[in-house]
Design goal:
ornithine cyclodeaminase, domain 1, eight-stranded parallel beta sheet, 2 domains, single chain, eight-stranded mixed beta sheet, 11 helices
Length: 340
């Protein structure tokens, strides 16, 4: 029987079907496949909405699988940073997942949960490859959705024994610490300043909605690894120029960084760095064709923007697992010719 049904996968189902340890390995393979030329990855389309702060984005890609078939997909989302003060997530939308045989729409998947998990998982890949093996002291700047998933990812790849958090909203920081303690059994110390959170840390994750630097290079200890995640447009950055200049910089994609990453573009505009400061892409580190940390006292930096291949890889994994355990809801959208 010809099947024209489409599977809808909810936020709760995504969280159950895409566990963090599995997603870290999944993202590593997707990035390595991309580095080997196994992906079609155009730049995402960003529409700055009136007011210049909120974004509508479309992120398409095709990613080759182990079976030789390509997963085809696109994430369609809105990004409203000020939602942090509301009941809504900052990233809202869907991932659309298609097959490469008939172009059928196989699944419509909640994008908020996919984005939260896969973004942190990619930082987990970067940390696994770039942080010192004994790194155990973690600082997180920001207390939103990405802060929680990044804590989970860091716990999965390094022996974390100390966690410090800074958030502009003190109440949010306290609530985060309580939730993290219940969920992961870890103590999170809420700090009054970003500096007090970062001083002496061996891993730092910046997951804020800041447009101006919240992380200063002067605070960063030798040997630290930084995952810079929150800023994703040319005019916004979380790191000051010194933090970028003194670090060995790796990115998820060079082309995207040269167009979209304020953390890189603003120091370049200042003349502090040039394009050669980007040492390479994370996928090449996974594939073993690029060297990462060279010395224990190297400061390493991963600038994350997020790639559509990550969403496609997650969608394929979620779709396969949902089919296996009967998750999700089926709907008829169409695609069959009328006579069928």
């Amino acid at each position: 029987m010809t099947d024209a049904r489409t599977l809808i996968v909810s936020h709760a189902d995504v969280e159950r079907l895409l566990p963090m340890p599995a997603c870290i390995d999944l993202m590593a393979e997707a990035l390595a496949t991309t580095a080997r030329g196994g992906a079609v990855l155009p730049l995402r389309q960003l529409v700055l909405l009136p007011g210049g702060r909120n974004i509508f984005a479309v992120m398409p890609a095709a990613l080759e699988g182990a079976d030789g078939h390509h997963g085809i997909g696109a994430k369609v989302i809105t990004v409203f940073p000020d939602n942090a003060a509301t009941d809504y997530d900052s990233h809202i939308g869907v991932v659309l997942y298609f097959d490469d045989i008939h172009g059928r729409l196989l699944a419509i998947i909640d994008a908020s949960s996919v984005t939260a998990i896969r973004t942190a998982a990619v930082s987990g890949v970067a940390t696994r490859l770039l942080a010192r093996p004994d790194a155990s002291d973690l600082a997180i700047l920001g207390a939103g959705v990405q802060a929680m998933t990044h804590l989970e990812a860091m716990l999965a790849v390094r022996p974390i024994t100390r966690v410090r958090l800074w958030s502009r909203g003190a109440a949010r920081g306290i609530a985060f610490a309580e939730q993290a303690s219940r969920r992961f059994g870890v103590q999170v110390d809420v700090c009054e300043s970003a500096e007090s959170a970062v001083r002496g840390a061996q891993i730092v994750c910046t997951v804020t909605a800041a447009r101006e630097p919240v992380l200063r290079g002067a605070w960063l200890a030798p040997g630290v690894h930084v995952n810079a995640v929150g800023a994703a447009i040319p005019t916004a950055r979380e790191l000051d120029t010194q933090a970028v200049v003194q670090s060995r910089l790796f990115v998820d994609r060079t082309e995207s960084t040269l167009r979209e990453a304020g953390d890189f573009l603003i120091p370049r505009t200042e003349g502090a760095i040039d394009d050669a400061h980007i040492l390479g892409e994370l996928g090449s580190l996974v594939a073993g064709t690029l060297r990462g940390r060279e010395r224990d006292d190297d400061r390493t930096l991963f600038k994350s923007l997020g790639l559509a291949v990550e969403d496609v890889a997650a969608a394929r994994f979620i779709h396969e697992r949902a089919l296996a355990d009967g998750s999700g809801t089926w709907i008829m959208i169409g695609g069959l010719r009328p006579e069928r």
